[in-house]
Each structure stands twice: as C-alpha cells, then as structure tokens.
C-alpha cells in the first residue's frame, strides 16, 4: 500500500513537469525509483538487452526482456552516458553483479573511456512503470487540450 501511495505521489508530482514538455533525466530517474524494488546483488544477463534508458549521468535502466527491467545506479558520473548510442555491461558467466560489474559507454568519442562501476541493482515493476508513463502522457494531452480550449475563448 505504501509503495502504491509513493508511486501515485511521484506520478502526480511529475504530471506537472510533463505538461511543460519532455521529462528531464532527473524527473525520469525519480519516476523509475518510485517503481524500483529493494536492491539485489545481481541479475541474469543473456548476452543482449531488449533496450536501455539513460537516467542522467549516474543511472540507467536496462531491459533484459520486454517485461523485465533493472535500475542500475552507478558509483559516480559516467562520461557521455546521456549521449551514448550504445552501451556494454561486463558480466561473469551471465551474471551482472552490483559493486563488481561495470557499464561501458560505446560509440564515437575518446577511445580510453573509463568503465562506470555499478553501485546498486534494483528490479523495476515494468507494468506499473508503463502505467505511470501512460498516465503522464495522458495528463500532458489533457493539459494541452485545456490550454487550447482556454486560448480559443
């Protein structure tokens, strides 16, 4: 119950931000944290991701399956994460572990990039996250419609 209340409060708080345009990385990170579970030590990695989303320079979400995602908090800022066309994540025999494995930013730029250590791993409630994102989009559309109606008068 408490988690649902926190998620609803975060969604309501971010709804105002959503009407001004695209959510910032810090606003998205707040939304993702509201839908993250307790930290875990590791997760299974099968060699490729279904997708990933940067959440600023110190966090990202990775999808291992369409319905399974993880919030990775990094030990510090990760250079060029916000602009990376691709990433790689180290693993040991198909396990990505907190405080051991690293995120590597790929793409053009400096050759000697420093890998970014994964500080913590949290499972994401993908269904609830998608529902909140949908609510934010709908709130944005409703706000635009209300603004348009007010302008037409």
Key structural traits:
two-stranded antiparallel sheet; disordered N terminus; 2 domains; 153 residues; alpha+beta
Q: Could you give the order of the helices and strands?
A: HHEEEEEEEEH
* Poorly predicted spans: 1-20
Q: What is the terminal-to-terminal distance?
A: 43 Å
Number of domains: 2
The biggest beta sheet is recorded as: 6 strands, antiparallel
Would you spell out the secondary-structure blueprint of this structure?
Blueprint (H helix, E strand, L loop, with lengths): L1 H17 L6 H10 L7 E3 L6 E4 L4 E7 L2 E7 L11 E4 L5 E3 L4 E5 L9 E9 L1 H27 L1
Structural write-up:
This protein is α+β, with helices and mostly antiparallel strands and 153 residues long. The chain folds into two domains: 1-35 and 130-153; 38-124, no CATH class. The chain is built from three helices and eight strands. The chain has helices at 2-18, 25-34, 126-152, and strands at residues 42-44, 51-54, 59-65, 68-74, 86-89, 95-97, 102-106, 116-124. The strands form two sheets. The protein has a six-stranded antiparallel β-sheet, with helices on one face. Strands 1-6 form a two-stranded antiparallel ribbon. The longest helix has 27 residues, at 126-152. The chain is globular, with a radius of gyration of 17 Å. Keywords: Signal.
Structure, briefly:
By secondary structure, the chain is of the alpha+beta class.
